[in-house]
Write a structure and sequence with these properties.
This is Dirigent protein 23. By secondary structure, the chain is mostly beta strands. It is built from no helices and 7 strands. It is elongated, with a radius of gyration of 18 Å.
């Protein structure tokens, strides 16, 4: 399953996170990977733990809570010209 959560208010307005993984609704707790994001969550990595609080097998409706842990990486790009070739590299730090 792939999930994208977009934020529409506060300091995260316009940012999003992307979550991918198996999500068997019949398992009470599932773990999925945070594989990226946009805006303030660019280059985000982490995991999400989904827990089913209520599930109706007839309608397929469910109430699921997500506990998401995100590690942000801040990168500073620099371009170097050497021998008529442009090298680009990123200096990154984990926030």
């Amino acid at each position: 399953m792939a999930l994208n959560y977009g934020f529409v208010d506060g300091i995260y307005n316009g940012s999003s996170i992307s979550i991918v993984g198996l999500n068997y609704i019949l398992h009470s707790v599932r773990e999925m990977a945070v594989v990226g994001g946009t805006g303030l969550f660019r280059l985000a990595r982490g995991y999400a733990v989904a827990k089913t609080h209520w599930f109706d097998p007839i309608s397929g409706d469910a109430i699921v809570g997500y506990n998401v842990t995100i590690v942000l990486i801040k990168c500073f790009g620099e371009r170097i010209t050497k021998f008529n070739t442009i090298f680009e590299y990123l200096l990154c730090e984990i926030l």
